[in-house]
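Shipment paperwork, digital attachment
Item: protein structure file
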Amino acid sequence: MKLIFEKSVAGRGQQYLPKCDVEEVALPAGLVRKEAPKLPELSETDVSRHYTELNKRVHGVNSGFYPLGSCTMKYNPRIDEEMAALPGFTGVHPLAPAYAARGCAEALETAEQYLNEIFGMDACTFQPAAGAHGEFTGVLLIKQYHDARGDSKRTKIIVPDSAHGTNPATAAMCGYQIVNIPSAPNGCVDLDALKKVLGEDTAGLMLTNPNTVGIFDENILEITRLVHEAGGLCYYDGANLNAVMGVVRPGDMGFDCIHSNLHKTFATPHGGGGPGAGAVGCKAHLIPYLPKSKMMDESDAIQVRSFAGNFLVVIKALTYIMTLGREGIPEAARNAVLNANYMQSKIKGTFEPAFDRICMHEFVLDLSKFKKETGVSAMDVAKCMIDNGMHPPTMYFPLIVHEALMIEPTETESRETLDWACEVIRSLYELGYKDPEYMHNAPHSAQIGRPDDVRAARNPILRFHP
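Attachment content:
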């Protein structure tokens, strides 16, 4: 397929822009280009066909099974998009006076109330642009809390080895030293290891629960108690909130603050570069340090992004919450857990789970033994899934499981789809023993074959040179 620049024909194009209905203002000479930008020149038909062809090459939740673990790639109800497209939301200016944005302010306040209830928190901000940005904001709250009390000796953040990769990066960006603790054989936090690293220099703990291997930590109340007794605070990474929303609340587990990827859990679009929203909630003792999301707020609170964040993403999440309601939110969580355990059970006997126990919304397969016996890697299996019409799951994560495939079916998939997916996975297990070479060369039916990942990483081609 040619790039859109390669399809360009000089002089071709369409002029649909209406006449300017306001006074024209010339830009300062220093800001004006010396030559026109090199944009592609195409007819409307050419543009439409180009993007339609691209669309046919993309695999999304609307085109097939998408079990990308730890990302909650689920079907997004169209009503969420419709509400966010209402003119009263899309047409408001961020600098509009308060009286002209009352509806938007009320929507933000309503979203905050609902999320506080789901989180078990006392206040919330929508400024962070996405999950990692929410992490950064949450850890900043912890830092400001200790700084305000003059407790400068707290320089370390504890991060389990099963954490999302952004956790240690976030803590480091906030100026903390990272203390890594191992998982116990059951996949949860090793309490003895935690106790050994807690001390007067502990600023806090960053923890995902359910964790990255899909297990709800049975010692969660003990973990948060130990951290608090040491004088630290507890940060909840809400990436896996989809498994417990409306059932249990992070605030009741003992966490002081939380971020939630609204673009995962609450059905706003995930992937494609955004937009996202990393709403951050906190308990009362952290409210003074919280970025404000009020319309036209003039306080001296910290700012991590302009205005109220990605406002329309919050509207989509609010619509999702209001559509499902108090009964629907926990039902979605329970169905996500049910689907994951159903798949894990049906796959057993072929690829084995890394932790053979009841999981939450996702589970991790360990293909180490399979690779040793067949030479077929987790990457090979994932590429063969493409040939069978499904998107591969997360590969080689978490790092504590070698040859890992992390599968999250989500609550929006039917039993028939799950049965089909399990049959495909079981057939790939058998194929690995019969024809490993075929799997080494997969995918065979995709738009492109297997790319050279090392070459792409070391010598990326990031620009088109006409």
